[in-house]
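Protein folding task:
====================
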Amino acid sequence: MVKFENVTKKFGELTALKGVSFNIEPGEFVFVIGPCGAGKSTLVKLILREYLPDEGQVKVRNIDLKDLRQKEIPEYRKKIGVVFQDFKLLFDRTVFENVALALRVIGEKEEEINRRVENILELVGLSQRANFFPVQLSGGELQRVVLARAVVTEPDIVIADEPTGNLDLGTARGIVNLLKKINEKGKTVIMATHNFEIVNLMKQRVIELDEGKLVSDEKKGKYHLA
């Protein structure tokens, strides 16, 4: 599903990733961990094809991302749902409208939009908040709206970039449990985080980065802090 082969990415004299290799299979749930500056966000942006590697190869669904033409990138990204830490919601639209927008962008019919949005809001526990505006929601509820928007288009891959960074442990655990539910529906989930408590609670595969290098890749079991 997602394959990095000896990937290096530089920004001037800064090496954000150096010789990183791993393979994520369809349907896996994988944490990408490491301190700030470890290379987590660069890895995410490479998968989204916001960046290209300076060396090595990034493949997603057997597509070498270097081979994608500029006009093909929007279609490629339709198969990837992204959960942002800073929400990126439209604050003049309701919860329902924010989630529905993702479907309107790809041209879904109104009947199908209503059906999918209602189903996904039920999954994330926001059916009773459908007509609320973002300003009326808590941080955890806002993140659930972002999660709903990310998965309502039924992507193959869901990427969560520090989705629990501004949340308390209990709320953060709820968000990750929702990601796990989505994973159990067959979606590949990649979550970048420095929240080691959440990682240890969930006991999923962990890819650890430090200073741009892959320092460990534990297939399963609990991650033990050094």
Observations:
- The longest helix spans residues 169-184.
